[in-house]
Amino acid sequence: MEQPPGFVDPSFPNHVCKLNKALYGLKQAPRAWFQRLSSFLISYGFTCSRADPSLFVFHQGDSIMYLLVYVDDLILTGNTSTLLTAFISRLHKEFAIKGLGKLSYFLVLEVVHNPTGLFLTQTKYANDILTRAGLVDAKPVSTPLSTNDTFVSDGQPFSDPTLYRPIVGALQYLTITCPDLSYAVNQACQFLHAPTEQNYQLVKRILRYVKGTISHGLVFQRPRFTSILGYSDADWARCIETRRSTYGYSIFLGGNLVSWSAKKQPTVSRSSCESEYRAMANTAAEIVWITHLLTELHALPPTRPTLLCDNRSALFMSQNPVSHKRAKHIDLDYHFVWELVMSGKLHTRFIPTKLQPADIFTKSLPRPQFEHFRDLLRVRPPPFRLQGDNR
User: Fold this and answer.
1) Coil, helix or strand for 218?
2) 97 shares a domain with 74
3) Are 371 and 297 in the same domain?
4) 135 with 241, same domain?
5) pTM (predicted TM-score)
6) Which of 163, 75, 65, 70 is CA-nearest to residue 118?
7) What is the pLDDT of residues 13-47, one digit of tens each?
8) Could you report the per-residue pLDDT of 244-255, keeping only the tens digit for each?
């Protein structure tokens, strides 16, 4: 550590300070802390996940422990209470830590335990966003965007972009437990550099939807079956300014939503088949990552993952080794998905559009469709009643 300005020793101006302890605020502090913690965990018997470097897995016989690290916040779980107690005791001796008991709040995620599983929500965080925007008393709406709402770059520039950007950034983090916001927030994020008055009015509509669903969150239930099911969808040439397609996917493990995305494709697709196939390739890549993670967690389902798509042409390309000149330019994605299917690591199937939950990530939908797909994603109100409520 260099001598700070104003405190340089005139006798030894080229000497450096010896850093005995990493402190908050130093650039090297997080790296030094993680190295110290990971060295201890590995010496105890944990292995660092290759799929997620912040995850450590302990496996000994039938006993398993998972430890997730976020800077100096740790989540620990396992299937043997005696093993957990012994490890926590050792952890207390090694580090000055504080145990907070059963997981209830982590990085503004609120975790509610119930007899059938878990309920994840961000009610307090959503309320803070509404307070910042001055919309705590706003009138709720039933969908984030109407079917006619479109974000555009033309129009009167918004007078205070520094208000637009932090609100949209905060909404991005809210999608962790509210995937139904993903499409609308993705559209808003594309105009952070130069928002217009119309764009801000649409963001206010998103906030009014948040107001009406402020207690909603993700429901996780104990699965009756364990399998990986992915849904892939794309809306061809959705962007009216660039004609790039918007794609989305949702991946379920045992019926519980574990991964989702809503993005604009980086290049223009020449057909709906191409945009759908590129969406399938991105979904397949995410499924492969999830299978690697579950393998390290010793929880990989015995059945191969299934990817469902509502475009028969894209499905045909994934299942048949027939390449033609119209598919030459998507050669890389073509071989990636096709090889997964041919090797038996992935199964692709057709699904009707009306049963396609990933449709909610590609476009604005009418209220009945939106609420139907939102329910399929298991985004719901709290699955419990207040005491004394006999309704």
Assistant:
1) strand
2) yes
3) yes
4) no
5) 0.85
6) 75
7) 899 887 776 566 677 778 888 899 999 999 999 99
8) 889 999 999 999
